[in-house]
Amino acid sequence: MISRVKTSLRDESGFGLVETLIALTILVIGLIAVSGLSLASADQARIANWRSQQASAAQMMLENVQSEGFGAATSSVDTVTVSGRDYPVKIDVSSVSSRVKQVTIAVAGVGDIGAVVYRTRLYKSKPLPDPVPVTP
Questions:
Q1: Do 116 and 51 touch, CB atoms closer than 8 A?
Q2: Which of 10, 42, 62, 80 has the smallest count of CB within 10 Å of its CB?
Q3: CB of 88 closer than 8 Å to CB of 77
Q4: Which of 87, 83, 61, 84 lies closest to 74, judged by CA?
Q5: DSSP structure class, residue 72
Q6: Amino acid 26: pLDDT
């Protein structure tokens, strides 16, 4: 009778305790990896949002400099508010030639990201020549 009990225990199909623990351990490791990936993805999305806001702040300042015109473009320090967040902005204007000015806009960083620098040039328009009168 004892040999029949041993034989029936060996022939029984299904999972044992060791197999179940190994499967649960692998599942937990997988879930931890997925949650870590989700956290890293959320962090990268936050940083991308900040970078986008920095670019918007720089674009606003560049539009202000361009709207003032070539002659009024001067260096300054200002603060721009984008989506409720203040970004300190430094504008540096230097003359390349009598008709060209280089504009450097540095937007301070937020959180884990550093400052971003954007550069462009302003060109002084040439005056139109006086119209030549047409003689009949």
A1: yes
A2: 10
A3: yes
A4: 61
A5: T
A6: 94
Low-confidence stretches of the chain (pLDDT < 70) are: 1-14
Question: What are the structure tokens assigned to 43, written together?
Answer: 């962090």
Which tens digits make up the pLDDT trace of 9-48? 555 666 788 888 999 999 999 999 888 888 889 988 988 8
- DSSP codes, 2-55: HHHHHHHHHH--S--HHHHHHHHHHHHHHHHHHHHHHHHHHHHHHHHHHHHHHH
pLDDT, position 74 = 87
Domain coordinates in residue numbering, the chain:
16-123
Q: What is the distance between the terminal CA atoms of the chain, rounded to a whole angstrom?
A: 132
Token representation of residue 20 = 């179940």
**Which H/E stretch holds residue 108?**
none
Q: Using an 8 Å Cβ cutoff, are 104 and 91 in contact?
A: yes
